[in-house]
Amino acid sequence: MIKLVASDLDGTLLHNYQQTVPKEIYDTIKALHEKGIIFTAASGRQYANIRRLFAPLGFDIPYIAENGSMCVYKEEVLATGLTPSKTIRHILDALMEYRKIYHTGHCILSVKDTYYSDSTDERFIDYMENDMHNIVTYVPDLYAIKEPIIKAAICDFGGTKNLEPFFHKRIGDEIRVVTSADHWIDFIAPNANKGTALKVLMEKFGIKKEECICFGDQQNDIEMLKAAGTAYVMATGHPLAKKAADYVVESPLPVMQGLL
Prior knowledge:
Layout: E1 4-7, H1 23-34, E2 38-42, H2 47-54, E3 63-65, E4 70-73, E5 76-80, H3 85-102, E6 106-110, E7 115-117, H4 122-131, E8 136-138, E9 151-155, H5 163-171, E10 176-181, E11 184-188, H6 194-205, E12 212-216, H7 222-227, E13 230-234, H8 239-244, E14 247-249, H9 252-257
Parallel strand pairs: 1-2, 1-12, 2-3, 7-8, 12-13, 13-14
Antiparallel strand pairs: 3-4, 4-5, 6-7, 6-9, 9-11, 10-11
Helix pairs in contact: 3-5
């Protein structure tokens, strides 16, 4: 019997970076809850952003945010992950090189309650604040941030065709570089990813691997896909994510509704 359902958001449960959850998905999650099946949203998004999305459910669900660097249930932080300050400096060094070559590259450094960014680009600022509804603090110098960093990510509206190989070549031996959307790469904090967070939830609720299913579409979902008993990847997903999954589907919804 399935007791836990974990789903990535962007590109999986939601599309085009939606900031509201369709009623059919809310209704399905509520029906799962009534049947005693836990649903968790697992995303690279900011915790506050994800929590706002699912607040209309009217009950608490566990959240896997920042690619697993924050795992929260009922306001209790169950697990966190941090990226070493030395690695953050190396990411920023590579970013400065990338900007010189490609004249783009918008970086966010995530801490518990905000994203830090040095971007002055109007399109990026509008996207972060008005499309994604993120909490962002703009600073002139990312090197000056002294707070522990949960996650680093870089956006290039031109896509990841340059981003992923560029950063993988320069710092891929130090930190895992993954695509998380069509125009984002994320740097996965050591020992903290969606898979490790999912295992924390399984342990907390006494759920076995075979009692858990999950859905994803990108490289930042791979550890989670491997951690679940049964893994589904979207037909539009990354080839490496498909290799880590058991099934390829068009949408999580029919599978979730099949549990009812």
